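Postdoc handover notes: sequence design on the structure in folder B. Input tokens:
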């Protein structure tokens, strides 16, 4: 049996646009996810877990740094873009400290496989942010060439190894298998050294290209096939951990970067809203924590936990200290993870940001909405809507008029957050925010001529991110 001393291995599996209701263990009647369902039954399943943004780039930057997106300049990007696009001037600042930075400082081997989406310029790539190696697509899988589209921005989709483009417009149906093979090789190569593997799936972001063997068995079309492939990937990694005798000293975390779109087979049921909103369906997502020797099994917790908390929690497991020279939003929920008697999550409050706009706050069972995008999506409207999430998970009954004292308390928290992180729609800049990274001469990553003709997608898409 290989051992790594007291430092557990950590595998973070992050899906793309997978919703609260897309796993069997979270109530899906149509997606087959037996491996993940077993992990939930034998580990810790969180019912009130939040990503720090309802869209891709801010969510991922926040998770890596333990900071709300506005704190690291990731609320919005050039020209108000919600996410980063190929050739963006902006990305994760070189001075930000990531989970990978902290773990590598404790002797961990670190690798990311899949979607990064925190900047595609060399200065922003994961190899500049604590990862020893990288294999994947640096942004969303729809940001390459699409058939029947005249988009001038659509350069060929690049597949990177470390900082080099090794292929363009790869066969997306084959990518998950290639990602898993790369992950198995990395685990084997660690050779007794503790490791951190970040597997960022392309599934279930559109366009979906699932392998035929998964499609044949799907009860939910291409979406169900992609979900089955995600489940298979988790099974393969677990098999390798068992084969090497290190499963008991490895923590596997499974989650998603934001809620589902709510179409094409995805579901946030029973939550209200979808990706791109501050309703629960935009930011509350599945989270399973599994590790036979680390996480006591058979538990479901309704404690409030966020992806923001991975940095402090993983650092605690590795014996590292989060940086003390900057403002952070990460809290260590290691006690809850390990099942210590009476342990609770240290987080009792969560703020919902869309871009740099503060939309809502949750404290305990109460959630107060203070702003929301209007029907056309072009502007914000002020609201005062209070929901009891313990009694009304779908946010159907506004009870603000019955609980003015709760509204008053939550507004105090809102004002403190605005002072700290800002609120763009009110013209407020936070006192403790930092800039994103910036390069002057940015350009899309390409291997061949920009007019390389190979295209894969069969349809145009209404939503990119």
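Designed sequence:
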């Amino acid at each position: 049996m290989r051992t790594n001393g007291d430092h557990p291995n950590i595998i973070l599996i992050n899906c793309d646009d997978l919703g609260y209701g897309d796993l069997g263990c979270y109530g899906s009647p149509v997606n087959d996810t037996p491996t993940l369902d077993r992990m939930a039954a034998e580990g810790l399943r969180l019912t009130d877990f939040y990503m720090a943004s309802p869209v891709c780039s801010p969510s991922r930057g926040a998770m890596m740094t333990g900071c709300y997106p506005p704190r690291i300049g990731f609320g919005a990007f050039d020209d108000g873009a919600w996410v980063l696009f190929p050739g963006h001037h902006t990305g994760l600042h070189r001075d930000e400290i990531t989970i990978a930075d902290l773990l590598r400082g404790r002797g961990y081997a670190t690798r990311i496989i899949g979607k990064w989406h925190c900047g595609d310029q060399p200065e922003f790539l994961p190899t500049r942010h604590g990862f020893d190696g990288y294999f994947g697509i640096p942004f969303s899988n729809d940001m390459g060439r699409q058939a029947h589209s005249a988009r001038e921005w659509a350069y060929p989709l690049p597949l990177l190894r470390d900082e080099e483009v090794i292929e363009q417009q790869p066969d997306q149906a084959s990518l998950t298998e290639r990602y898993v093979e790369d992950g198995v090789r990395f685990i084997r190569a660690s050779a007794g050294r503790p490791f951190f593997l970040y597997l960022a799936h392309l599934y279930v972001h559109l366009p979906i290209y699932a392998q035929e063997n998964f499609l044949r068995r799907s009860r939910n079309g291409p979406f169900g096939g992609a979900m089955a492939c995600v489940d298979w990937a988790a099974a393969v990694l677990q098999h390798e951990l068992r084969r090497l005798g290190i499963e008991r000293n490895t923590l596997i975390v499974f989650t998603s970067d934001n809620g589902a779109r709510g179409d094409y087979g995805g579901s946030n049921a029973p939550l209200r809203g979808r990706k791109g909103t501050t309703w629960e369906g935009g930011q509350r997502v599945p989270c399973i924590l599994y590790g036979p020797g680390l996480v006591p099994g058979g538990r479901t917790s309704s404690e409030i936990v966020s992806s923001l908390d991975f940095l402090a929690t993983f650092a605690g497991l590795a014996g590292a200290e989060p940086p003390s020279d900057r403002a952070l939003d990460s809290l260590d929920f290691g006690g809850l993870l390990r099942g210590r008697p009476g342990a609770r999550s240290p987080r009792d409050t969560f703020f919902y940001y869309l871009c740099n706009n503060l939309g809502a706050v949750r404290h305990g069972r109460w959630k107060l909405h203070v702003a929301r995008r209007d029907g056309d999506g072009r502007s914000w409207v002020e609201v005062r809507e209070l929901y009891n999430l313990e009694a009304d998970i779908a946010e159907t009954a506004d009870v603000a008029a019955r609980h003015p004292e709760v509204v008053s308390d939550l507004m105090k928290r809102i004002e403190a957050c605005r002072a700290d992180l800002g609120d763009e729609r009110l013209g407020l800049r936070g006192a403790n925010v930092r800039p994103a990274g910036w390069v002057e001469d940015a350009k899309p990553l390409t291997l061949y001529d920009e007019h390389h003709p190979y295209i894969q997608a069969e349809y145009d898409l209404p939503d990119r991110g």
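Context for whoever picks this up: The CA atoms of residues 133 and 177 lie 18 Å apart. Don't rerun without checking with the PI first.
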